Amino acid sequence: MKKGKALYDEGKYRHAQEIVNKLAYAEPQNQAAKDLLADIFEQIGYQQESPSVRNSFLGAAYELRSGIPDGASPKTAGPDMVRAMDTELFLDFLGVRLDSKKAEGKAFKINLSTPDNNEKFVLELSNATLTNISGFQAKDADLTITINRSDLEKTMMGEIKFDEQIKSGKAKLSGDSGVLEQLKTMMVHFDIGFEMMPGTGAKDLTPEQNDFEQEDIGDTAGG
Q: Which fold has domain 2-66?
């Protein structure tokens, strides 16, 4: 602590960080060490030109002093952004959200067709990985889903659950609907309450979202 404070007072923030960061990890309940590390991170953050790097340091400083922040995160996946997102990118996001442990030992193929914009995709689960191919339909698909892109967008926004699209007839299924139920159980909504720094009190801040609702994109604009 003494050496770290001396380096901080001299403006040698990187050197101070090397010492005090190790102390904070070794003694995660040492609030004095965490407060000093927060001061160091703050000064390093202020000097960054990159908003994302700056925010990482300032976010860590806040967490060291006050713990995991409460409240709702700013929503970045607004209606305009969702409409502008192409279907292939949306399916890629489903692949990112797949819990590979829940997908172990399972395999299926789903054909997706959106008649209003003439798009076709095949979505394949194999080796605990979800992939998609644009402009292609599998002859041996377990399930075929037909839904207009304009209706799919409402599910992507979280306005209408996919089950409601099926009940209303907006989404038509042909084949084994059980694979769709399997896919829903494999989707993860990301928990933003994880610790960046030790001893700051992780919380379960997983948002309430529909199964196939588009997750918010990380905002590094610094605003």
A: 1.25.40
